[in-house]
Design goal:
Oligomer: single chain
Number of strands: 10
Shape: elongated
Largest sheet: 6 strands, mixed
Structural class: alpha/beta
Helix content: 55-70%
Strand content: 5-15%
Strand order of the largest sheet: 6-7-8-3-9-10
Length: about 600
Amino acid sequence: MLKKQSNLSRLLQIAGSHKYLIYASWVLSAISALVALIPFCCIWNIIQEVLAAAPDFSRAQNLTRSGWMAVLFAVIAVLIYIGGLMCSHKGAFRIATNLRLQTMEHIVKLPLGCAEQFGSGKLRKIVNESSAATETYLAHQLPDRANAIATPCGLLALLLVFDWRLGLLSLIPVALGFLIMMAMTGKQMQEKMKEYQNALDDMSNEAVEYVRGIPVVKTFGQTIFSFKKFKDSIERYKVWVIAYTKQLRAPMMFYTAAINGVFAALIAGGLLFTQNGVTSDFLLDLMFYLIITPIISVTLTRIMFQSENAMIVDDALQRIDSVLNLKPLAESKQPQHPKDASVQLSHVHFSYDGETEVIKDLSLAISAGQKVAFVGPSGGGKTTLANLICRFFDPQSGVVKIGGADVRNISKEELMNTVSFVFQNSRLIKASILENVRMGKPDAAREEILAALHNAQCDDILEKLPQGADTVIGTKGVYLSGGEQQRIAIARVMLKDAPVIILDEATAFADPDNETRVQAAFSKLSEGKTVIMIAHRLSAAAGADQIYVIEDGRIAERGKSQELLEKGGIFSRMWRDYQTSIQWKVEKEVQQRD
């Protein structure tokens, strides 16, 4: 059985040649800790000389020299420590960068559906914050650990050299504090740290989804309390933090009392050891111990936080591994090429979790150039079906073909050039409109891009912007409405000119004026293409060549709009409900105007 690679050895392996800088930082930090103890020896000399010279302090000739020596060694210790931090930071930055690159390179190879399953907020947190946790650990915690290990070794020598009785006495509270610390930072603490990070991940992910859902609030007049998942994630985090804080309250109180109670033990010991009188040598040692023992509490506290940070890094690497362990979709060594723009699914079964089937033994055939619509109740599997055609996921069984070729045997580049998709919330990047559209065809000339913008009904958008198509959108640029962003996304798809188009309720957030323009753009986009439309607004599906009613992962009904209405089945019922909702909305608007 192979031994599991430790987190530290794994990080050092990622560092490459920069790992020697990490090693150097440990050595320098340990040397700094030992040098930092020398000023305390100088202080002992100062106290010794003062006690020996009393009451004629003019005989103390070396006080200034000892004082400057203490300052000199303190400065040297700081400079050595800074040198160690410079080495550790350079190595840590390299490791964090390599870890981010490694994770992002893997994400790029994953099917797009994996990103949707993770949630963009959670995925971004894993890439950014988990790699940042390793940087903090390597740049600060590991040098501090070397420092914290060297400090007790040097302290132990000092404590036992001057007066072994006081030295052992001062170690009793330290041992008690160490035992309490071990109880707080054991396996239970590691599980709690994982729960804490999970709570943060959920809250971050729900926050991103909440912000993205703000257009829904504005469009449909919902309150923020409709975003129950976001509110619940905050409540779960609050409950967990309060419970955990109460759990650690008592042990943390005893730990703090123990490590800060060393002076009390020394005073008690001093009273015990001086029952027969006080000597100047004992008084000198007692004063020295009272001065130096506070370092013990500082060192133990640093060790405790280092244990916690080691758990944070372990959890961070596990989260990164949760991404790295995802397998990219297999690429065929003998790629096939689609003969046309037809789409065929044969006995397809699919499940996200390997247990609950979302698509159940589904078969359908879409001819090249045909326009079809997927409709049906929410959660029925419409979007999942479109994701399988795009090969965002592979089915557990069955075959998905485009142009007679199994999508698993079509190269990734050719598949992406064959299928284009427009989602409900099309994403634009922080760049000019021209560059956003050019993503559909990187080698396109400016004239081609402007023609695509014109065909996508974007002329009114360009006219109102200061630099037209060269206007930067996003942060520190201009912002576009949901419908305007959709038209830019449609222009990108038009430029790509793929033979198969998938539209996933692309007019969901458009206002009436934008919806009219978006529909006109869709008409232009659909010319000569195979179009698969996921429609919640049934009016958009009415003109399709074929309508598939998807319910519970199966095709419940199929046919043209009029045929399905005459059947009086699911589609007919959905159509009546749709017409009722439109009528209610119109009546409401009339009442508001009145």
